[in-house]
What does this fold into?
Amino acid sequence: MPQTPNEKNISVDSKLALLICETDLISFDIFDTLALRLLYRPEGVFRYIEEFSERKGFSIARKAAAKEARRRAEAAGEEEITLDDIYQFIAPNYRHLKTLEMEIEIANHVPNPKIFDAYELARQQNKTIILTSDMYLPREIIEQILNNCGYKNYHTLFLSQEDGLTKRSGSRFKDILSRFDIAPEKMLHIGDSVRADIKEPAELGIQTFHITRLNRRMADLPVSQRLIRLLEKQNTGWSNLTTGCIAHQAASLEAKQEARSYFYRLGYQYTGPLLVAFTLWLKEQTQCKGIKKLYFQARDGLIMKKVYDALFDPPLAQPHYLYASRAFFGKVKSGEQRATFLKYLDSLQFPNTPGEPVALVDVGRRGTMQCLLKETLSEEGRTPNIFGFYFDLRTKNADDMAGFITEFKPRHVKFLDFMDFLLIADHPLITGLSRDENGFTPQHLPKTYEEERRIRAAREMHAGILDFTKTTKPLLTQYPLKPDRELFLEIGRTLMRFAKEDKAAFEDMRIASGVKNEKYRPIVPMKSTWTNLTRHSKEFWFSRRKAMVRRRVTDLFQR
It folds into this structure.
C-alpha cells in the first residue's frame, strides 16, 4: 500500500501526491521545475556575464548566436542544438566566455521547494524517477546543478542535445514509453512548459502535472509589487538577481506554508540587496587600500558586520564590532570613560602608530565618529592611520573617507536618511563600557516600550537581510557585480512611497535621534494631529459635536 504524502514530513500538492501514488514512472522536467534560476529571466545569465566580464554587447550577441544555431539546425532537420553549436556563431572575442557561462549556470540554480518534496515523495515510494530536459548545456553541467540542488538517486537523465529527441516534438516521450515498456497511464510527467511538458505527453495518454513558472505568479506572491514593477523594467545583472531571489524566497515560504513578518520582508526585499552590494564594494576598497582590520561602528555597523561575516568566511580583513556612540564619546572626552575606552581599543588590537591602516565602517554621513576618535587618540599621543568607509558619505574632498553612495538627487535624500532605521541594531544606544574579568560590556540606555518595538523589528529585518545574503553568496562571491547605484537609489525611493501595508506596520512607531536619543520622530510621516485624534474615537466626535452645539446656543442667547 503506497505511503501518504505526510508520512515523512513531506508537503506536496494533494493532486500531485495522488498522481505520484497512482503511477509507476515519474518524469521531471529540470529547469524551472526541479531547479529555479536566481537570475529572474532565462536570458538574465547573459546580461550577468556581460557585466561581470565587462564585455559590452555579449548579451545581444549570445541571443543572436542561439537563434542562428537553431535556424541552421531546423534547416538540417535536427531538433536540438548544443552549447558548442551556439558558440560557433558568436563573434570570436566572445567565445572564451563559454566556460564562464557554464560556471555561472551552476551557481545560478537552486532547488524548487515546491517540487523538491514531490521528488522526495516519489523516491520514498520507490518509484522509477527519470529526468528530462530540452537543454543545450552539457551533461556534466546539468548533473552538477542537480547534485547541488540535492536531486540524487534518479534512474536516467535524458538530454535532447545528446540524442536529438525533444519533449516539444513528442519524440522524447515516445522513446521513454518504448524504452521502459510501460502503459502511458502509468507514467506521470511534471513540468512548466504548456506545450512540451503538458500538451505533447497528454496526447500520448501520459498523466501530466503543470508547474506555473514563478514569473507568471509574481502578482499572487507576498512580495512588494511596486518593487517588482521597478525591477522588471530594468535589464541588469543586479535587477535580475534581486527579482529572482525575491521570487524564490516567496515561493519557498509558500511551499513551507510559512508566513513572515512585514519587517522580515522589508529586510529581504529592500535592505538585503543594498547591504550585499555595499559589502562587495567594501571588499574591493579594503583590498585596494591594504586594510587588514575593519571596525564596524555601533549601532548601524552591527548588521553590516553580520553581512560581511556571512559573505566572507574566512574574512579578507579581520572584522570587529566597535562599541561607540556620540553619547559615549561625550564621557570619553570629559575623562569619565577615557581610560576604559583606551583599554578597550587595546583589547581590539587597535593600532597606536601610523603603520598598518585600519578602517571604520558605518552608515555615514559626515564621518563625525571618525573625527572624534582621531581627535581623542591624538590627545593621547596616538596617531593611527584611520580610514572611513560609509554607505552614505556627504563630506566632499575627504582623503581619509570613501562612500558607497556619494552622488544622489534631492529625491533620494529621504531614503538615505531612512537608512538609520533600516540598519538599526537589536540593542539600545550604547552610553558607556564596564569592565570585569570577562572583558568589556556595553552599557545601554534603559529600554523603553518604543525601543522594544524597534528591537523586535530590527531582529526580523536582520533575519531577512541575512537570508538574502546566504541566497546570493554562491553567485556573488565567485562572480561579483559592480554596484548599480542608480538602481539601488531607485529601490530606496520606491520604498519611501509608503503604501497602506507600510503605514500599518510603522503606525505609532517612532525612531530616536539626538546625542542621547532624547528626540523622537515618527518613522512614517503621519496625518495631521486633527486626523490622528479623530480617526479612532467615536466619543471624540460626539464630544466635538456637543461642544459645537453648545457654542451655537450660547451665540444665539448673546444676540
In short: Confidence is low (pLDDT under 50) at residues 1-8, 528-536. The first strand starts at residue 25 and ends at 29. Residues 14-216 form a domain with the Rossmann fold fold (CATH 3.40.50.1000). The two ends are 95 Å apart (CA to CA).
